[in-house]
């Protein structure tokens, strides 16, 4: 998943969601839920990008159980799963740009956070979300 501070909302390419469902969710007996969407996004080039579907799926960062991800899907696209700033704020995530780490609240605790290492690709930070069996960092 790509942490994208400039994204107005969570967005992903259809091919990425389908591949995630096949490789991560199906082996553990889970699936993506699809609902209709009428959202239109505008890229950097100002082209209109309609999203006809919205995906609701579980993600796994390791050790904190499943976290729900909701994103509009672009048909036929390989755009990575983007996590927007509004979603990061809602989840009370904390990010360290110095150490390339993100801190996410541990469910059912008052003030405990789990630390996760990010991969910085020179433009964006990547958060692995396919760690079904890993423990808290």
SSE layout and pairings?
Elements: E1 2-4, E2 11-13, H1 14-25, E3 33-42, E4 48-60, E5 66-74, E6 82-84, H2 85-90, E7 94-96, E8 101-105, E9 113-117, E10 119-120, E11 125-126
Parallel strand pairs: 1-6, 2-5
Antiparallel strand pairs: 1-11, 3-4, 4-5, 7-8, 8-9, 10-11
Cα-atom radius of gyration? 15 Å
Note the run of SSEs as H and E: EEHEEEEHEEEEE
Spatial separation of the terminal alpha carbons: 18 Å
Write down the overall geometry.
Answer: globular
With helices defined by DSSP (H or I, 4 residues minimum), what is the helix count? 2
Number of strands: 11
Spatial sequence of strands, sheet with the most strands:
6-1-11-10
Helix content: 10-25%
pLDDT average, as an integer? 88
Please indicate the percent range of residues in DSSP E strands (runs of 2 or more). 35-45%
Largest sheet: 4 strands, mixed
Low-pLDDT segments? none
Class by helix and strand content?
Answer: mainly beta
């Amino acid at each position: 998943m790509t942490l994208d501070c400039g994204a107005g909302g969570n967005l992903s390419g259809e091919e990425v969601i389908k591949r995630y469902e096949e490789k991560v969710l199906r082996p553990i007996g889970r699936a993506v839920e699809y609902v209709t969407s009428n959202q239109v996004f505008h890229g950097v080039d100002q082209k209109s990008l309609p999203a006809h579907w919205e995906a609701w799926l579980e993600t796994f960062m390791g050790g904190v159980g499943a976290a729900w991800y909701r994103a509009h899907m672009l048909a036929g696209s390989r755009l990575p799963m983007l996590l927007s700033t509004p979603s990061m704020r809602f989840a009370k995530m904390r990010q360290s740009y110095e150490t390339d780490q993100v801190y996410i609240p541990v469910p059912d605790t008052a003030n405990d956070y789990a630390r996760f290492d990010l991969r910085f690709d020179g433009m964006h930070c990547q958060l692995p979300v396919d760690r079904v069996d890993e423990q808290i960092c």
